[in-house]
Amino acid sequence: MTGADPLPAEFAFIARHFRPLAGPGALDLADDAAAFAPPHGRLLVVAADAMVQGVHFLADDPPETVGRKLLRVNLSDLAAMGAVPLGYLLTMARPRDLGEAWFAGLCDGLACDQDTFGVHLLGGDTTVFSGVSAAPLVLSLTIIGHAAPGAILRRRGAQAGDGLWVTGSIGDAALGLAVLQGRLADPSGVLADRYRLPQPRLAFGAGLHGIAAAAIDVSDGLVQDCGHLCRQSDVTATIEAEAVPRSAAALAAGPHWLETCLTGGDDYELLIAVPEVNNAALHALSARCGIAVTRIGGFAAGAPAVRVIDPSGAAIMLSRTGWSHL
Questions:
Q1: Which of 6, 67, 283, 315 has a Cα at 20 to 30 A from 140?
Q2: Mapping DSSP to helix (H, G, I), strand (E, B) and coil, where does residue 179 land?
Q3: Does the pLDDT of residue 299 top 60, yes or no?
Q4: Within a domain: residue 174?
Q5: Nearest to 226 by CA among 159, 282, 271, 170
């Protein structure tokens, strides 16, 4: 190959769209792997999530928000572990007819959130569906973070007597999907925005060491993710449905949307088990971060299960508990 030879199409595509996102460890996206050292004395924390067109985002969602949501849902996994983000890897399988303008928008969104959250692209892979009709866009992001040894939050650790708390509000994202599908009105645009742009609670998660006994982010539905805490901790939980915080827009949708709020997913709030002795510290953290936190129930001894109750204490029967990946 001579100096005048053009870049192969794949590498030209990467140079146009993704090289501007690369951080120092990415080696300018010119080698087979990234190379970087984690901060001294810190543990690496790694997670991965995929988003598939038509499953996790809509075909007409703006590409900027698709990129930002992809990064944010992975950052939320770090928040649930109390970790600090460091960088990410991005892999995609794309339909051949998805144009350059779409990927320019995707990368604009990623660039915006890289500045917001202090992370950079470290590398990845791209491929094109060939000979496959109506293939969806598939995006997968691997997030890399770090945490102090002994400070990582786990799903395991909740005990009988702990309170069950949640950040922010629940149900907006599931209702936002209903809005974008034409099943619900959203005059303010709040609900659709919550579906497209989750808010990873990184500062709050990083401050939970010594306060929370266990934590998980609410990605697949409040009730279902609470069940993960119960199974990992070998306890039972009660959720008081009326205590679950819902935004003004969610409440305006009406009481028949309550089950959707409890089970719909995509909220990316933190669900936390907190010993009662730490309640004051939790409220202090809430004030420092400017993020509301609400007690929605508690844990008790018993076989792993989640019970949802109404104000009278009667069990609410749900048709499902959350999203299934299978």
A1: 6
A2: helix
A3: yes
A4: yes
A5: 271
